[in-house]
């Protein structure tokens, strides 16, 4: 039997309104996020909220990490640094890939997660035998559905914490139905101009914004949809959204008799980022923003995996310079070919920028590496966000009341972009269906500077005093109200807790 890895704890607080006695049931949940910093961060914040709401709960988070993921490593080090042996939140590091037999395949991400199944089973078994609280179940990430079988074997309930939105979840389940129940070949939609009726959208969805992995080829489609098919075996799904943002999609999910119970619990964000100490480069970024006028800066950032080849970088630079717009640009270089590494900052960004760009734009712009995104978006100088449309970034932008311009790249980001522009009306489109591979080896798309410039000028037009800005401001207020006592997400969180507690025999 594998030995349990070393553990530590982080501090959580219990609200003063919690009324607990020693006779009340106490329940423990085990959260298992996928090895991506955005997924882990959302999971940690979700766990903290549940613990703050009810002292009957305790939570353990199992952390998986890829080697060379410096962003995830830095985040986990900060988590482990804040320790409290008396806490009800415990963190367990699972072995990194460098401690396991190497796995090389196109499905490395899922193979790595699946390889942890025996270790996860042993940890859960040990907890069932020794825990002071009753183990009430596991809460798994959308990509960790192989652990549902482990839970079933041990007689535990399983729940999903879906870190994307309700429309995305509903679309995934709709495609599962088309593929497995209606025997539909989804590859027919590859590069198709057809528009599809989808229950979670009030308007038809272009096939070009479907996640590419579902339409690329039949074998990949079957594999990925097989993971999402298992959602229906769970006892419930928490979704990182709020009813006021995605009411149509939430209604579609809630009335689907084949879908487990839905809990819209968001927005789940790391709101403590603004209060955490800043390093020197982050301080320089915020000092520069302090010198800019209100809503005057467009912020460009494309997520932890977002990079471009040199030709596309030059087009972005040309667009920014021609627009005359003040800008803060997070620019990072692609990882080396054939290596499992992550994007990093350029030692000298001038090696990929047009000659003289930095000098010519020094009065209006700043090129940086990684940015403290929440701190930047919440700064009053930022008036627009050119985004890859990852769901965490989308929720952060809404929370801060900053309208977006869409430039999706991977996964479900094209779908998010379509939803933001066409369905919700809170973003301008630079592109909706842009797509690229992770390593920037085979560019499949290219956006000319004229299109980028036009999108930025539309985003920043009228000094932010337009209908789109008003919609985002309204959603900003509603996102906060949703988490307050009596709000829609507060109520959904409470309902989830009660359902978990009541499930204990």
UniProtKB/TrEMBL annotation:
Name of the protein this chain belongs to: Glycosyltransferase
InterPro entries: UDP-glycosyltransf_plant, UDP_glucos_trans, UDP_glycos_trans_CS
Keyword Glycosyltransferase among UniProt keywords: yes
Similarity field: Belongs to the UDP-glycosyltransferase family.
EC primary class: transferase
UniProt xrefs under Gene3D superfamilies: Glycogen Phosphorylase B
Protein EC: 2.4.1.-
Keyword tags: Glycosyltransferase, Transferase
CDD domains: GT1_Gtf-like
Transferase recorded as keyword: yes
Pfam families according to UniProt: UDPGT
One annotated GO molecular function: UDP-glucosyltransferase activity
